[in-house]
């Protein structure tokens, strides 16, 4: 098969899903692409770099928010033992990663804190792990406070959000954090130094 990719998009791996469709709980075969990780990593921003990310702020329309990756921390499977956490059986045996990103409100009105829903934790096997923080909003997950979800950010001020990403599969290793931009294809990506 032949695939056409936009300029600047790198390839980490080739994946095949059992049954021919995406099923996160199904059997997956992964073949790394020679030089893929090194080539893709060469073009990534560093943790701490400030990058404008496009976010739909409703009243203010599409804003470019200055954003900074603060940290990526590995949690423990024990963090996911809460009986009220909405997790699949596979996720309960997964490893949580806590991603902290700081955003500054450049709009003319208060900014609602829903940016973490656009964060993706990227693995070396080419998977994009979305956040589960909003599913855990009524639960306590050690290492990732969620009180920012109930506040807004005034014009010119900043907020640091922590998002929870559950990685399943022992071979999966995070290497980057991406922000899925509003009305624009592709991710804005930082290299992740996992703590």
Task: Describe the overall structure.
The chain is mostly beta strands and 195 residues long. 6% of the residues lie in helices and 38% in strands. About 3% of the residues have low confidence.
Poorly predicted segments: 4-9
- What's the helix-strand series? EEHEEHEEEEEEEE
Which structural class is indicated by helix and strand composition? Answer: mainly beta
Beta fraction:
35-45%
Which sheet architecture does the biggest sheet show? 4 strands, antiparallel
Helix content: under 10%
Overall shape: it is globular
With strands numbered from the N-terminus, the spatial order across the biggest sheet is 3-4-5-10
Please give the count of helices: 2
Distance between the termini: 38 Å
Number of strands: 12
What is the average of the pLDDT values? 79
Radius of gyration: 17 Å
Overview features:
single chain; mainly beta; four-stranded antiparallel β-sheet; 2 helices
